[in-house]
Here is the input.
Amino acid sequence: MPITSLHDLMLHGLKDVYSAERQLVQAMPAMAKNATSDELRTAMETHLEQTKEQVTRLKQVFELLDAGPGNMKCKAMEGLIAEGKDLIDEDIEPAVLDAGLIAAAQRIEHYEISAYGTLAEYANVLGLDEVRDLLEQSLDEEKETDVLLTQLAEGGINQFAQNGDESEEDEATEKASRKKSASKSASGSRRAAPKKKAAS
Ligand SMILES: [Fe+2]
Ligand SMILES: [Fe+2]
Here is the structure.
């Protein structure tokens, strides 16, 4: 369909974010399941429920605009989700993964905040007040989630990732030195070495 007006551009963007939200409904349970922190897991599960409502809200928007949701694929969200999955698949300490999951989730939230912010403003300019209000509801939820994720990161999860890393390093160093004194052929922990490098 040709895009010749702001209304067309808004519809294009709505189809994109509809795809993004639906991809998230599929992907978020695995992210939540891999969170070690109860608070983080609860935050992700709560946002999963909100995300389902956001899909419903977008369906209402399409109805108001008398348009179909199409079958676009949001490639940006596909990539953001793939990066989150890649991190989960790494050989990664659970406490460190929590910090990484927050980072991945916040990239997702920022993408959504950008998408909804733009679309709500288009609806505003086009005088589509009901559409704007629905989009702003979702925008507010994305912003609240982003703030909550920052609070979780700064309120202990990043620190815990750092502490867990340090204590594990100490343990690995101790083990390695004990091994070394028992046998000169000890090579130490393969995982401890690069982490130490990254921490310095
Ligand atoms: Fe969302
Ligand atoms: Fe979101």
Residues 178-200 have pLDDT under 50 and may be disordered.
